[in-house]
């Protein structure tokens, strides 16, 4: 493997890893802060992708499709929190797993009813459709660089939001002691709604920007959900920092696994998980408590 | 006036009597045209494989309609089941058609996994079954049975001949990429067998989890390896995406793309320019130009308003094969052994060209080498003449 190939494969791995981070960060925040295991998280990745496809077809622009899609998916998230998840905070994880599994089936059925069961493709926006040539056969697509850059910016925004803002302070406080925060006069219910909607919007956003490179198809939520759980477990449940590191590791393992050992490519992420958990049974950055 | 009334009542009674007698008698002993032939169509009518399911059904019914709505002089009744391309539902659906609906013949299906579930039940029950698409080698290999026929192709036939073609065209080092599932692995194996036997060398085999379409890492690897050419199996939306991504990565002009015919069948409209120049092997092409094919294409377009595809041809031939079995026994659906014998000996005058059945009940047929030109799969040669499947593992005498 020469330098250029290696470099491009690193970029491929980074891009996949960063995209995984967007999905997994919401999953780990919702668990870390509200203690909810949300199996329907992957459905939002799928919802995002289908919204991007439908709105892009209607408006002719992926950018306006993403804006519209963000509004719609955030609304769905808020409504879900009000109607369903609010009742689950004090319940056992078994109830959460059963209910959110039911939600997956409802979302799949709704998807089938509204959008059908076909596979759809979304065009890469014309501005980003070029590729940067490196050698006579090797080149790197601009759109993938844009995805990586966008994900990096969003990752930094999440970090800033949680570590350096008043809202972030409330979130962190609410995660460790809900009653105390309430006594201080902060509307913890509103904070929870915000975090929940933000987490789901992140997954939907990932689905939207990934739509042009992965196409839009039934059950796409299930695939990303499983790999996102692997990321969360490897990173340490509830740790956003750990999730970022784990997502990048899995992105790299997956990409290089495909090339170096194609026979076991589909297992590489799980092998990595097994290795990490043997060494650190609670993940890379375990958050205490639960 | 009165006389007329009396006659019509007598006629009515007579007709009722005949119909009642006809339905009371078992089909095997039925005299004349009273007993209908019941055909169970178990095909996908929803989901990704709905278009092939509909093509097969349309063309099957077209052939019957051309015979005046009859097979060997008998009216045909359809029992239609949407198999949803779900292998888990295959045994139950098959069982229901055989036991509850008591169909005389089974026709199905598109998805190889569903076909295997169907074959397992049908070979126990002994119902004569014709597969109008699903190519999995196992159906006419280890799972073969006297009552199981296939009117389409085996995976082997769509990939094996390409090996020799690619070596002859000077491609000595080739990479393979496909999905890691039965049909993809069978395609890769068959191609590799033909290619290595002709003296070629495989530099890399890459398998993606089905139905993943994120090709970037593999395309980078192909660009780095610089093989003489690439052999691919993908179908449907995956084929569209691969061919487009391959062209977008700038590989199309430096490393030629070859594949099993499904790479560019039913997908050309979506692939557009990116598919131009791609070579594939299949048992059908868009411009065969034979009188038989032309007549079929005209009739199909007239009946349904659009052009037939390879699936339609297979559906049409399924009906022809069934007719070939029923004609010698004058539509006696109970004469199982005679029907099977007749089907085994039949020469089907297919739009794809004439074919006969192999020992394992799979068509022995010409495989065409096609090239995409002007948005059509044009014939550029015959990759294999009268190719039979290798019949590996088939215990049938």
UniProtKB/TrEMBL annotation, chain A:
- The domain of life for this entry's organism is Bacteria
Q: What is the name listed in the Swiss-Prot or TrEMBL entry for this protein?
A: Branched-chain amino acid ABC transporter permease
The UniProt entry, under Pfam families, shows: BPD_transp_2 (PF02653)
Q: How does it sit in the membrane?
A: Multi-pass membrane protein
UniProt family annotation: Belongs to the binding-protein-dependent transport system permease family. LivHM subfamily.
List locations, semicolon-separated. Answer: Cell membrane
PANTHER family the record matches: ABC TRANSPORTER ATP-BINDING PROTEIN, BRANCHED-CHAIN AMINO ACID TRANSPORT SYSTEM PERMEASE PROTEIN LIVH
Q: Which residues cross the membrane?
A: 6-24, 94-110, 142-162, 190-213, 225-248, 260-279
Q: What is its main location?
A: membrane
Keywords linked to the UniProt accession: Amino-acid transport, Cell membrane, Membrane, Transmembrane, Transmembrane helix, Transport
Automatic annotation (TrEMBL), chain B:
- Ranges for domain Leucine-binding protein: 36-375
**Transmembrane regions listed in the UniProt entry:** 12-31
Q: Name the domain of life.
A: Bacteria
UniProt entry tagged with the keyword Ubl conjugation:
no
Q: Gene3D superfamilies from the xrefs?
A: 3.40.50.2300
- Keywords noted in UniProt: Membrane, Signal, Transmembrane, Transmembrane helix
InterPro entries named among the record's database cross-references = BCAA_transport, Leu-bd, Peripla_BP_I, TAT_signal, TAT_signal_bac_arc
Pfam families in the record, alphabetically?
Peripla_BP_6
Q: Which family does it belong to?
A: Belongs to the leucine-binding protein family.
**PANTHER family attached here?**
LEUCINE-SPECIFIC-BINDING PROTEIN, PERIPLASMIC BINDING PROTEIN OF ABC TRANSPORTER FOR NATURAL AMINO ACIDS
Do you know which NCBIfam families this protein is assigned to?
TAT_signal_seq (TIGR01409)
Q: What is this protein called?
A: ABC transporter substrate-binding protein
Q: Which organism is it from?
A: Aromatoleum toluolicum
